[in-house]
């Protein structure tokens, strides 16, 4: 029986995935590395330092910087990201997400967040939805996606079993993490990237609590 829903944040609840991409693109350009939206699929869901490593590897510059220099670049990326958040004053939820979160809550399911972003609490607050979540997994103390740890931590905080959870992600790394956690995986985005998910919808507009539960039931029985 399903008892809880665990959500990714960037690219699922809000459109901040695009802002992370813009900020990394700007940092990469300064390092003379070009990244495009196809490459960005590999960055989605991946932590800040790990993302930088992937970018450096992509540009053939993995051994060009000291740890200290890398930290400075990562901090700069976070500053770009935060200034984009501020510029983008009207930070909004993706279509239909508020309704979906409320439906889940009002139907008596528990709700948790499993985001790799250290900015997640700030974003939930800016959206005014912090109180909807029973728990937030903490990316500073567990391994990042594609390891299952953030989802396992979220389930443990909610005191539910992993097979009682449905998790929603827009990232390849996130779907892998959900699968490794033994949960039902819902993907939002292009099926080409998310084929390991149990159920994929192109955008958040197509997400509905009922349909997700039907898909889970069909897989289970
Ligand atoms: C999410 C995003 C990634 C981002 C990561 C860390 O998983 O999908 O693009 O790199 O969080 O975010 P942070 O805000 O801590 O830099
Ligand atoms: Mg995401």
From TrEMBL:
Q: Which PANTHER family match?
A: 6-PHOSPHOGLUCONATE PHOSPHATASE, HEXITOL PHOSPHATASE B
Positions binding Mg(2+) in this chain are 8, 10, 169-170
The alphabetized list of GO BP terms reads: carbohydrate metabolic process
Task: Give the similarity note.
Answer: Belongs to the HAD-like hydrolase superfamily. CbbY/CbbZ/Gph/YieH family.
Tell me the protein's name.
Beta-phosphoglucomutase
Which prosthetic group or cofactor does it need?
Mg(2+)
Keywords assigned: Carbohydrate metabolism, Isomerase, Magnesium, Metal-binding, Phosphoprotein
Question: Isomerase: present as a keyword of the record?
Answer: yes
Query: Which transformation does this protein catalyse, written as a reaction?
Result: beta-D-glucose 1-phosphate = beta-D-glucose 6-phosphate
**Where is the site Important for catalytic activity and assists the phosphoryl transfer reaction to Asp8 by balancing charge and orienting the reacting groups?**
115, 145
What does the note accompanying the cofactor annotation read? Binds 2 magnesium ions per subunit.
Q: Which InterPro entries match?
A: B-phosphoglucomutase_hydrolase, Beta-PGM, Beta-PGM-like, HAD-like_sf, HAD-SF_hydro_IA, HAD_sf, PGP-like_dom2
Q: Would you say which domain of life the source belongs to?
A: Bacteria
What is the source species? Answer: Ornithinibacillus bavariensis
Active site positions: 8 (nucleophile), 10 (proton donor/acceptor)
Q: Which top class of enzyme applies to this chain? A: isomerase
Q: What is its EC number?
A: 5.4.2.6
Q: Per its record, what are the GO molecular function terms?
A: beta-phosphoglucomutase activity; magnesium ion binding
Binding positions for substrate per the UniProt entry: 8-10, 24, 43-48, 51, 77, 115-119, 145
- Is this entry keyworded Lipoprotein? no
């Amino acid at each position: 029986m399903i008892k809880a829903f665990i959500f990714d944040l960037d690219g699922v609840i809000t459109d901040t995935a695009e802002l992370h991409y813009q900020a990394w693109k700007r940092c990469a350009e300064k390092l003379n590395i070009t990244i495009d939206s196809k490459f960005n699929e590999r960055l989605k869901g991946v932590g800040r330092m790990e993302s930088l490593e992937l970018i450096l590897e992509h540009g053939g510059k993995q051994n060009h910087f000291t740890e200290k220099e890398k930290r400075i670049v990562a901090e700069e990326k976070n500053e770009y990201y935060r200034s984009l958040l501020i510029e983008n004053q009207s930070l909004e939820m993706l279509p239909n997400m508020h309704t979906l979160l409320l439906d889940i809550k009002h139907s008596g399911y528990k709700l948790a967040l499993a985001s790799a972003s250290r900015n997640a609490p700030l974003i939930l607050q800016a959206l005014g939805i912090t109180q909807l979540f029973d728990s937030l997994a903490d990316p500073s103390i567990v391994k990042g996606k594609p390891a299952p740890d953030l989802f396992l931590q979220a389930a443990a905080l909610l005191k539910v079993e992993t097979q009682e959870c449905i998790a929603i992600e827009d990232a390849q790394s996130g779907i892998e993490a959900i699968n490794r956690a033994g949960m039902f995986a819902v993907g939002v985005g292009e099926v080409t990237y998310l084929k390991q998910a149990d159920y994929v919808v192109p955008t958040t507009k197509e997400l509905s609590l009922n349909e997700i539960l039907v898909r889970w039931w069909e897989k289970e029985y």
